[in-house]
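User: Hey, my collaborator sent me this sequence without any context and asked if I could get a structure. I don't really work with proteins. Can you help?
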Amino acid sequence: MTETITKNKPTMFESMLAIQKELKTITKNKKAFKGSYATLERIWEDTRKLINDNNFVVYHKSVIREGKNGLLTVAEHKTGGVLESFVEYSNNTDPQERGKEITYFRRYNINSIFNIIVEGEDNDATKKIGDYSKKVVDGTLAAQKLMDAENSEKAREIYKTLSAEERKTEEVIEAIKFIKENENSKS
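Assistant: No problem. I've predicted the 3D structure and written it out in structure-token form, which is a compact way to encode the shape of the chain:
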């Protein structure tokens, strides 16, 4: 009798093992100005059935943990077992930027909980060890302004307002390349 119950209600470990045996590497499906990535939709569609079939329900919520505001992702198993991943929010208060951050954290929390691998996302391993020199100018904001431009003409106007140092940053150079590639593909 006990054996039948166990077969009908696998342990959380057995469910995780079954998921990991079946998981495939997720391929990237979206281009961004600094490379490509797998969207939340891609990750969820490629894993949802496997996760649900193995008795997990996944949900996300904003919480305060140890005085830190962040996103908590919970994977609750049929047996009552719970797996969690928490990421603290940045200090950014812009609602649109916070929305991007939440999407990013949802994607990475799911990956973390279920050990989901996205092809080519181990970029930290390729950085030079011991290279802790500070950038004189961070072009992230300038690049984002360029990417948010309505069209290439507006991007050119924004580019003209950038300092010489900002124009030379890797972020701005990559944003310009991305804008040009998209402009050429529309032609």
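In plain terms: The first helix runs from residue 2 to 8. You can pass these tokens on to your collaborator as they are.
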